[in-house]
Amino acid sequence: MNNIKEFNFKVNGFDMKASYFQKTIDEVFIPVLRKWTEMNNGKGERLIIFLVAPPAVGKTTLSLFLEYLSKNIKGIEEVQAIGLDGFHFHDDYIRSHSVNIQGEETPMSDIKGCLETFDIDKLKVKLEELKNNDIKWPIYDRNIHDVVEDSIFVDKKIVLIEGNWLLTDEEKWRDLKEFSNYNIFIYADEELLKQRLIERKMKGGLSYEEALRFYEKSDSVNVRKVLKNHLPADLELSMKANGDYTH
Description:
alpha/beta; globular; Rossmann fold; 12 strands
């Protein structure tokens, strides 16, 4: 049974439609939800899951779909999906600061979304709090292009955090894995991601030339860094051109 099911979600302020193969739902998504439920049983502190992938793989939508599934399947503990993007530095900070990249001073605003534009210290404090407490979590609102603090109340026993950089094998970032109990990493072909990212920017109002320029300056760097510089995960998947996820 390999039919496609369609679902509608609101993602970062935008209405989005997502499709998943029934076979993948039955053989990948539901079993991993059952595994998390088993891991959570009898566990004193909260179960924290990392879902990591390069930009344009659909991880935000997938995390919301896993939350949806967990609420609608008997015997599975409810999952709460949240994201890393609320830990961008605030927009006024990004506009007024630069970082040294390969010996060149680069305005943060030119590389927004790159590793260097996230507040790793703030993230670690929140993750420490999250282990044993119900807390408020920030989001990144793409309608205003800025962080909104304390937007989500996190109170479920299993929390799924999605983001590009959660398994990054670099100083300060590699320590994040100590906060998670289970990790998923999704691979994808670079050319497929290039096409998706350019289309995304054009939907946001950029011309093809502007979108291509942004990809070459920022998105391509992020894609390669995520794919080639990450720690091992418990479950590793690949996204195909048709949007399906396979082992």
